[in-house]
């Protein structure tokens, strides 16, 4: 079994990857921002896998040579998964908080790995569908996107707005990785995983008050109840739309990307269709009627998503030998875990 280095190990997607890696017998070194985060993550790991997990502290992936000390201590790694990157729209300085860490973090990990890890065979970068289309083009149903597509966001425009900055940051960072491969011709090859909105239960511990950005779209719905004297339509919610995929499929895709010979040089576009938050609300009301949530505009989901660009990820689905989970499975499993966690508080 292999020695695998994973950045951002305490993140939502990364914890699922760590779980699968340990279950498959790999030795895992994860980077986290602080001793406390490392100890917390280590405490979730089941007893039989504890000796297979260690963590390294990397407080800021954007700091010069951020990963060098950690990689020097683990020069015998064979695979590297780079998931760490900020995912938030809550910033007044998008360049500082989103773009620079995404770019510098990718540069730092690739340079460090190339310098210190002679046995490294493959790097997997967690990119995003945001690198495939811009936030504007994503909502233009006349456009078509697939694994070959890139957004057209310019740096000067990206710095002006947090959403454009996130989309720009993901393409700038992923392009940097592919260019690094061309220019530096390292010993390792590269695979990118490009998920759309990732939802699903947490791998080990669910804190309903601190869900990651994507799952908060589901978590927030559970507070949408009609107050006394209020009509259901008076309670508003953000009817976000986009592509969806289950975090468990995204984690599996990272392991596939890590080891499968056919994945080399590919971009795995991880999406299983389009969602609107209204569709999620309809599913919650169908499966959890006891919650008495607002109804919104039931059944309007297809109309909500009709504005979205057409996407195709046939090449990815042909490569990955399993069916992705449905929106229904994702929503039911996520809500059930949040309810179970709340009942234990
Ligand atoms: P997450 O839970 O916020 O994980 C992000 C991880 O990166 C966290 O461990 C975070 O540490 C770390 N990180 C962020 N900025 C950092 C910095 N400057 N220095 C050190 N560590 C830093 O989000 P996630 O959803 O799992 O995202 C993981 C990856 O998937 C990201 O690259 C994201 O762009 C990509 N992605 C996510 C989605 C989605 O819908 N969730 C969709 C497509 C792509 P702290 O938690 O300690 O800050």
Automatic annotation (TrEMBL):
It comes from the Eukaryota. Residues 4-264 form the NAD-dependent epimerase/dehydratase domain. Keywords: Oxidoreductase. The keyword Oxidoreductase applies. The keyword Methyltransferase does not apply. Belongs to the NAD(P)-dependent epimerase/dehydratase family. Dihydroflavonol-4-reductase subfamily. This is NAD-dependent epimerase/dehydratase domain-containing protein. The lineage of its organism: Eukaryota, Fungi, Dikarya, Ascomycota, Saccharomycotina.
């Amino acid at each position: 079994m292999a020695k695998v280095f994973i950045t951002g190990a305490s993140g939502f997607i990364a914890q699922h990857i760590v779980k699968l890696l340990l279950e498959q017998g790999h030795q895992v070194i994860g980077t986290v921002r602080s001793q406390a985060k490392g100890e917390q993550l280590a405490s979730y790991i089941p007893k039989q896998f504890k000796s297979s997990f260690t963590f390294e502290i990397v407080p800021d992936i954007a700091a010069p040579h951020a990963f060098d000390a950690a990689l020097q201590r683990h020069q015998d790694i064979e695979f590297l998964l780079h998931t760490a990157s900020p995912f938030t729209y809550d910033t007044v300085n998008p360049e500082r908080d989103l773009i620079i860490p995404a770019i510098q973090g990718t540069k730092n990990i690739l340079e460090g790995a190339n310098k210190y890890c002679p046995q490294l065979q493959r790097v997997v970068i967690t990119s995003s569908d945001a690198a495939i289309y811009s936030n504007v083009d994503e909502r233009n149903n006349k456009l078509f996107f697939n694994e070959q597509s890139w957004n057209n966001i310019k740096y000067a425009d990206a710095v002006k707005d947090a959403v454009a900055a996130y989309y720009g940051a993901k393409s700038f960072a992923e392009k940097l990785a592919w260019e690094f491969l061309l220019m530096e011709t390292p010993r390792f090859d590269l695979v990118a995983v490009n998920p759309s909105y990732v939802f699903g239960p947490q791998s080990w511990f669910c804190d309903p008050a601190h869900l990651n950005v994507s799952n908060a779209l589901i978590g927030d719905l559970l507070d949408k109840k009609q107050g006394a004297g209020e009509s259901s339509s008076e309670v508003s919610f953000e009817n976000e739309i986009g592509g969806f995929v289950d975090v468990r499929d995204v984690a599996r895709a990272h392991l596939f990307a890590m080891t499968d010979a056919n994945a080399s040089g590919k971009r795995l576009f991880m999406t299983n269709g389009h969602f609107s938050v209204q569709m999620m609300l309809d599913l919650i009301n169908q499966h959890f009627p006891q919650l008495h949530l607002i109804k919104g505009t039931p059944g309007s989901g297809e109309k909500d998503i009709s504005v979205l660009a057409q996407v195709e990820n046939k090449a990815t689905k042909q490569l990955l030998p399993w069916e992705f989970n449905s929106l229904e499975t994702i929503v039911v499993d996520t809500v059930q875990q949040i309810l179970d966690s709340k009942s234990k508080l």
